[in-house]
Structure formats: structure tokens, C-alpha cells
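Morning. Coffee machine broken again, so started the prediction first thing and wrote up yesterday's gels while waiting. Chain of 289 residues, entered below exactly as on the submission form.
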Amino acid sequence: MFSIAADVRNTLGECPLWCERTRRLFWTDIEGSELLALEKDKNVVMRWSLPERLGSFALTEKADMLLMGLASRLGLYNLNTQVFSTVSASPGVSGTRIGDGRCDRSGNFLFGTMDDNHPPKVIGQFHRLNAATLTVETLSLPEVAIPNSICFSPDGGTMYYCDSMQGRIFCCDYPTLDNQRVFTETEGKGAPDGSCVDAMGYLWNAEWGGNRVVRYCPDGTLDRILPSPGIQTTCPTLGGDAFTTLYCTSASIALSTPSKYDGALLKAEPAVFAGLPESRFAAVTYQQH
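Came back before lunch.
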């Protein structure tokens, strides 16, 4: 079902986001310290070289501006001038970097910090950059080794998250963070990596090492499995004009003999189930022009 959307051979592709306004699919190669974008109409891959590894990012109301979570800091990046303006240092403890992240339905940026060593220690945390004040707070969620799967139900009332090392995806009421509970446990050899939520409230999760993307019902039961030719799928997103193309990033890191699919941007179309427009970082004023 999956084919290659962009033959880019990323070391660690992550965080695909579809921008319906520019009709671009953005993603990051974390280990390559690079932002990439596939222009749907032109079938051309654009690249931006960054000063640090880009763990995650968010769209903003300005087409030429992204909120970025670099390894050590958060800031706004102008795609045209390639200027990065720091908003905040990473709130993580020493030895951590910024990893997975996504905006909530109110436009605040939720992100995780993780141990930069291997194997990672359980010193990672979840944080929120509040758009109204541009201040960062650490959320009262358990510490993790590899924070992932940050996404939100269509109404914004449920937050999903995971520690990839635990083989379980969690959820809680949001924004209160009450009722923290196990959403689902993964089966088989794969570990839960990035996730997104579709218009029906079903969660799509890419399994690292599992050769598949899994769709879960809102109650956490398994709905369907999409086998992937890439061993290390990292994060899915639903994009395209009707939000029915399932894109998925992948990684070639640590594979002795990666195939042409490992590290490529993959796609499956149509996915039948439509996605939602990505929530944008809602800061009223920007520090960069």
C-alpha cells in the first residue's frame, strides 16, 4: 500500500506536517539537522540546513514562518531569510534535547525532552510553550526515556503521548492532565513512535522496528494495520487536498543494510479516512519579521 513519495534517504526522518495553505509536506531529518518540504504540485523537495538538530516544529499563521524545537532551544524560523530567532532555551535537564512536539487545539506547542545518550535514561519530560505569553512550563506527567506520540483528539479534550521504551501509548484529559491512563499497548516487535489523529478521532501510530502503521479506535482497540516496506517508520500524518493521503517518515539509522524505503518519505493514497488541518502555533506577536 505504501510507495515512496520522496526518495530522500533520511537518517532519522520525523515530524511530517501538511500545510494546506502552501500545499507542502514538511518534515525533519533530525540527525541531518535539516528541514525538508515536498511541494505537491511540483514534486520537488526543498531543504533548509539548520544550526542544530530539529526535533519537531509547528506551522504558524505566517506561511514563511515556523516554530522550531531545535536540540537546545525553541524559536521562530523564517523560511525565506533562514534566520532563527530564539524564544526560549530548552527546559530539559542537562544532557537532554528537544524531541517530539505538536500544537494543541488552542495553538500552544507541546513537546518532549529526552536523554541524548544511548541507551536513554528516564530523564525526559513533557513541556508546553504557551502561545499567549511565550513562556514554557513543564507538565505534571511522568518522566520518560523517549517522549513520542504527542497529539490531540479533534475536540482538544484528550492528549495522547508515550514513552517509546515502554510499548504503551497513554492519554489524559486536557488541559487539566487529569485521568492519566493507558490508551493502548502495542503488540509485536515494534515500539510506538509518532502519532496523529484523524477527523473521526482515531489515532494513527507508526511503529519503530515494526514495519507498520496502526490505526486505533478512540477506545484504544486496534482498528487496522497498514504494513510498511520501511522497517523503522517514525511518524504518520494525513495530508493532500482532501487530507486523505497518509504520509509517513522513516529512518535508516542503525540499519546495516537499509533498503530504498528506509529513510524515505512514504505515502499511501487514498487512506480513505480523512485527517484534520494541523493546529498552528497561535502566538499573537512574532519576534521576527
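The chain has a mean pLDDT of 96. Going to sketch it on the whiteboard this afternoon.
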